[in-house]
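Structure Section — protein described below
Tokens — whole-number codes for backbone shape
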Amino acid sequence: MFNLSGGEIVVLLLIGLVVLGPEKLPDAMRRFGRVYNEVRRVAGGIQRDVTSTFSEPVNEIRKTADEAKRIFMGSDPAPSPQTNVNDPDDPPFVPYEAPPDPDQTKATDDGSAQ
């Protein structure tokens, strides 16, 4: 968490020894250890909660993105396990075609299109 090397820890202990004295230093180190462990425990709990909360939506987004990539890249689209491709009750797929633009199809008096 703090990424301290051995030499840095020794320097911090010496500073603590000078500031707190030999009587208070062991008690201060115990308190620091307890606080540090409590902070790690709380942070781990928060991380687990966030991971468990967002894992299902993130997996759903990944599945959707993979399916869209497979469809748009033109690779062999595998049918989704949730849909039955051979279901006779499903209506046939008809692609959307835009209606003709009325400005393009107006007829003039002589019968020709503009």
Summary: The mean pLDDT is 79. The helical segments are 6-72.
